[in-house]
Amino acid sequence: MARQHLVTIADHRPVTARLRWLALQAGDLARDVRPGNYLLLRCDDPGDGYRLLRRPLFIAATMPELGQVALLYEAHEPGLAWLARRSVGETLDAFGVFGRPLSLDSRLHNLLLVGAGAGLAALIFAARVAASHAAVTLLAVASDPDGLPPSFLLPGATEYLTGTGADLAASVTAMLQPAAGVSPLAWADALVAALPPDALTVLSQVVRTVRFRWSRGFALALIDIPPGCGVGACGVCAVELRGAACLPCVEGPWFDLRDIER
Ligand code: FES
After folding, report:
1. N or C: which end of the chain has fewer CB within 10 A?
2. Nearest alpha-carbon partner for 86 in 103, 71, 105
């Protein structure tokens, strides 16, 4: 059950010119969170009503031995810019945990993660957990190198492939359907994607081209959660999936890619 956590900042630093790593002292969260979970963070000072809504931020790592969880984010709007100005030792107001966790079957041998933007944090967490029992490849795309998480955030055994360019969908296609060589999709047992909608559409097309069979459960994809209530009350995150209304904040945010494709 989601609840309020008043957490202390244990570490807060830039890891690229755009991305910041934020570690929070939160022993109960460090014990309970799973890959795919997110927190809703209050990102304003009292009285700053114009940034009222809490920001959803995916958990990128947990360090139970330190009693910490870590987030990875880009300060691309006023609320997150406020967060970027917070210092070690300050207290933050977090609500959570939200989001159905990703199921990372212990029988999994080859996990392929494909992502861009805010969802990359969840993929990093997935890589850190799955690396104990599976070969993990993370394919990250961004408009420029500063949008790519540094490799030191990943377990050493992770195969980390990156692509940059203004057209993220084109970058995904080039990496998953190479002109020469074998696509990482060919040998993956499972795929988890966190991409913008146009890149997800392209990803679906590439999966259909490369894979002989695409069974349900093979590919999970993220539907973005906008700032909102997180509990199904405000309707701001509502989308239509297979002809029915869906609230990703409570029913997702991870769905079978076959249910999302257009
Ligand atoms: S964020 Fe309010 S209903 Fe989903």
Report:
1. N
2. 71
